[in-house]
Amino acid sequence: MSVPRTTFVYIARHGQTVWNTEQRIQGSANSPLTDEGTAQATALARFARGLQIEQILSSPLGRARHTARIVAQAIERPIEICPELAEICAGECEGMRLPDVKTHLADFWQSRKQDKWHHRWPEGESYTDAVHRLGPLIGRETIWRTDGSTLIVGHQSLNRVLVYLLTDCTEQQVLQSAQPAPVIMRISSNRRVGHTNLQTVPALDQPIRWSAGLFPND
User: Which of the residues 66, 84, 87, 155 is marked catalytic?
Assistant: First the structure.
């Protein structure tokens, strides 16, 4: 399929949540946006006005839907809720604080670090599971439009899988990346990925600087 070079897939993460501030693992569970998270979603909405977005695809989880709704209202575009875009399920660890998981489930955590891509959360999913889950969505021709770009509002781990499927990045490259809420990724039809940080974006009438590659996980 021939896709105009001017169309992109933009990948955003939901705004900050209460559980984010408490270092709790969310996975398929949910937590409301904080005031800061709502402000981040509003900043994304302002940014999206200049991106020629024609469709918004959102995770079904509340934190992503809230973020997507703020953007949709600003740019007057519909939202399509896609179950495939839900965050990777962390099973029994959902709701636990990450420091507690590392302390009380130390054997599990060490095992996970050895092969993070294939290792499942207890009663949950792995990155590999998410690859299979996302396959049908990625295969849809409507991801790439001829009349404008697509914005996907998802989650950090799930978005890593999206980048893996839509670009030539390796498993390790995406696992070594991070996506704080202000970071937006842009994927072109030739499978190139770049990123920008809304905290450093100039005035809306100025060109946006896109850095090549993924945002590093410091």
Answer: 87
Residues 6+ apart with CB under 8 A from 31: 17, 18, 19, 20, 24, 63
pLDDT along the chain (218 residues), means of 10: 67 98 96 97 93 95 98 96 97 96 94 94 96 90 85 98 96 96 95 92 72 89
Which of 98, 118, 33 shows the shortest CA–CA distance to 13? 33
87 catalytic residue (yes or no) = yes
pTM score = 0.93
Based on the residue annotation, tell me whether 76 is a catalytic residue of this protein. no
CATH code of residue 64: 3.40.50.1240
Q: Which domain holds residue 102?
A: 8-212
**Residue 80 neighbours by CB under 8 Å, 6+ apart:** 55, 56, 57, 58
